[in-house]
Amino acid sequence: MITLYQFPAAFGLPNPSAFCLKLETFLRLAGLPYQVKDLTDPRKAPKAKLPMIDLDGERLCDSAHIQARLTSQFKLELDAQRSPQQRGQDVALTRLLDEHFYWLVVYFRWLDDDAWPRLCPQFFGHLPAPLKWLVPKVARAQVRRDLQGQGLGRHSPAELLAFARSDLQACADLLGEQAFFGGQAPSSVDACAYGHLANALTSSFKTPLDALGSEFPTLTAYCQRMQARLWP
Ligand SMILES: N[C@@H](CCC(=O)N[C@@H](CS)C(=O)NCC(=O)O)C(=O)O
């Protein structure tokens, strides 16, 4: 049995974490049975990040590692039809979303001064006093440090929006006229694309990134298509 440990649903999405939504979408695409356990404190996971799964008593972390393990253990064929060139593009798109675009969404949720007073009660409102005042301060300082270290936190909001626009343009160009990044049917890269794009473009938690949604109608239509297929 697979148990998926992830943050609770929020923002009108199955999950407000792009990586948790990526992995749960993958499980649905693969047709693997699973149960969900909500966790609000990622420090309880061995690598202090979510998602993680318990697979017959073994704890596995990192959406990419988990997908690779499930693919080999259950002989999944989600990517069987992908050519070497398409597989290369899938890795490149995954890196763009996981390692670059993700941080832009983090910035506009956590460090934008308009977003923070709305985010704070959503993520930390369940904590008892005085934790609900202390933990958000520590967590926000950690996010600020992470973004400084990653490098994107050194840019202005306008520069970050320009990066987001070019990331989304790359996604729209790769999608082209196809229904899914995998072609006529979703492949595993669609789990990643949906996790990130749905969080940035279709969340009820509004950030400056929402303005970009109208510039990329094929991507918002894509999110709706994935939602209808996997999250009816
Ligand atoms: N490479 C990891 C990234 C997971 C990740 O960054 N998870 C975030 C939530 S979206 C997290 O748990 N952050 C908690 C923290 O950094 O303290 C994966 O693919 O699963």
Automatic annotation (TrEMBL):
Coiled coil: none annotated. Keywords: Transferase. CDD domains: GST_C_Metaxin (cd03193), GST_N_Metaxin_like (cd03080). Residues 18-114 form the Thioredoxin-like fold domain. GO terms for molecular function: transferase activity. GO terms for cellular component: cytoplasm. It comes from the Bacteria. Residues 164-226 form the Metaxin glutathione S-transferase domain. It holds the Pfam family GST_N_4. This is Glutathione S-transferase. The lineage of its organism: Bacteria, Pseudomonadati, Pseudomonadota, Gammaproteobacteria, Pseudomonadales.
